[in-house]
Structure formats: structure tokens, C-alpha cells
Amino acid sequence: MTLSPDELNEQQLTAMSPDEFDTLPFGVIKLDTEGRVVLFNAVEQRLAKRSVDATLGKDFFADIAPCADVRDFRGRLRALHEAGKRTETFDFVFRFPWGAREVRIRLWIGRDGSDWIFVTPLQSTIA
């Protein structure tokens, strides 16, 4: 599938199977209303160096990406919910034990209250 994060819509997302998410050329993370990871596609597994089995069901901000538990990431997600908005795109740096990764994030709020995080690498590492 050759869609970009900006081209996806709710109808497409709800119709996709887990295998179809794995064919997307960018990372996809879906959080339930409690912030637990319920979908973690193959690209994101490679980017984060985490298996889906070690990730599903975990709290995204506490257990998976504590570096994203900041105003510039989680704060934006909260602001979207509070304002009743659905999407925002911004650049962010994930700080992993093996190095930093600069990415473009698209946050998207589903009608069911779930949070979608689309991750597109901007470069492999930052010195």
C-alpha cells in the first residue's frame, strides 16, 4: 500500500487488517482510550526495535515511549481531545538507548476515542 499518513482516513483505517497495516511504509501505533497499545505495525517494530508481543497491551507513554510523555507530544494529544479536533502533524525526536531518531508525527483521533500515531522517519539517526 502506498498511502502516506496524510492520505489515510477513518474509513480506510477501520477497514484495514493487521496484515495491511504491516504493508504501510510508515509506523502505525494505535492506542485505546486508556493509552494502551492495541496496534503496532511492522515498520514501527523496526523503527523502535520492539516486537509486537513485547508492546501490545502496554501503556504507550509509561512503558513504550516515556520520552514522548512531554508537552510537545502527549500535551498535543491532550489538546486535540480537549479542543475536539481530530489531527495534528509535527516533528519530534524519539530518544532511544541506541540513539535519537527524528520523525514526523501525525496524531489522529478516531471517532471511538482511540489515538492513532503515524510515524515517518526524517533521518536515520541524529548525532
Task: Describe what you observe in this structure.
It is a single chain. With 127 residues, this protein is of the alpha+beta class. 29% of the residues lie in helices and 29% in strands. The protein is built from five helices and five strands; from the N terminus they run H-H-E-E-H-H-H-E-E-E. It has a five-stranded antiparallel beta sheet with strand order 2-1-5-4-3. It is globular, with a radius of gyration of 14 Å. The model has no long low-confidence stretch (mean pLDDT 91).
Note the main attributes of this structure.
127 residues; alpha+beta; Beta-Lactamase; five-stranded antiparallel sheet; 5 helices; 5 strands
List the helices and strands and how they pair.
Layout: H1 10-15, H2 18-23, E1 27-31, E2 37-40, H3 42-48, H4 60-64, H5 71-83, E3 87-96, E4 99-109, E5 115-121
Antiparallel strand pairs: 1-2, 1-5, 3-4, 4-5
What is the distance, rounded to the nearest whole angstrom, between the alpha carbons of the first and last residues?
32 Å
Main sheet: which strands, in order across? 2-1-5-4-3
| Shape category | globular
CATH C-level class: Alpha Beta
| Oligomeric assembly | single chain
Whole-number radius of gyration? 14 Å
The low-confidence parts are: none
Structural category is alpha+beta
Count of separate DSSP helical elements: 5
Structure summary:
The chain is an alpha+beta fold and 127 residues long.
